[in-house]
Amino acid sequence: MRRMVSSLALALVLAMLCGNLAAGEAQASAPSAVPIEQEPAHRLVLQNEFVRVFEVRLPPGNATLWHVHRHDGASVRLSDANIEDQPQDGPAEAIRLHRGEVAYGATPMARTHRVRNIGETSFHLAYIELLTAPGVSVDHTPAAASDPRVVLENERVRALRRILAPGESTIMHTHASRGVGVPVTAGRLEIADPEGATRNIEFKVGALQWIEPGTTHRLKNVGDAPIEIVDIELK
CB–CB of 202/68 below 8 Å? Predict the structure, then answer.
């Protein structure tokens, strides 16, 4: 009888040890995620009450940490790249990105993932995280269907692409909505205000600018190469 009790006790102890080991292994294998602002490849470059904007860079072969997205957001791709997007709760997906593309991601619930650069070029993008509910913009009207600059539009954002050849100018125009201007190429611009004052700026790829509603200006490419800019307007 004592042998039977001892055997049962030993079996219980072994079962508990195996259970604890399995739980430990499961806990160790579960990814621990950080908030997006703590992920090293995401550099916060602008923040206000409406948006947080991150410049994301990932060299070939590198991967981000597991990180959490809690807000809707739009991204402007600033390089050609091949990446692998690995969600926490699903299979990895290989994605080919093209410079100048605009994408939008709705986040009705928190999303955890990591990204790995599986190509031979640097992964570079601007990610605009939307901090407010829809309806904060002064402009709620859709863009004209014939406007060739519009590359993406939904209930949260409107994305417009502008390309200026060397020496080319826009007309004097007013931005009805607040938003973020994202240079896709480097260049040199002359900016003129309605009073005729001008200033020149030289900018790099991704050197974004916050745009307030009511901003009125004319842009001229005073460089020697085409300039491409994507404006992400908030609704």
Answer: no
pLDDT digits (tens, 9 = 90+) for 26-53: 344 456 999 999 999 999 999 999 999 9
Q: Which two tokens stand for residue 65?
A: 């940490």
Per-residue pLDDT band at 101 (split at 50, 70, 90)? very high
Closest by alpha carbon to 204, among 190, 224, 218, 188? 188
CB atoms within 10 A of CB 59: 11
How far lies 81's CA from each of 57, 95, 148, 222, 223, in Å? 11, 8, 26, 29, 27
Structural domains of the chain, ranges and CATH numbers in brackets:
34-130 (2.60.120.10), 150-234 (2.60.120.10)
Mode of pairing for the β-strands spanning 157-164 and 187-192: unpaired
Quickly tell me which residue has 């947080």 as its tokens.
52
pTM of the model: 0.83
Cβ pair 55, 206 in contact under 8 A: yes
Dump pLDDT digits (tens) for 133-156. 765 555 555 555 568 899 999 999
Per 3-state DSSP, what percentage of the chain is helix, strand, and coil (rounded to 5)? 15, 45, 40
Q: How far apart are CA 134 and CA 234, in angstroms?
A: 8
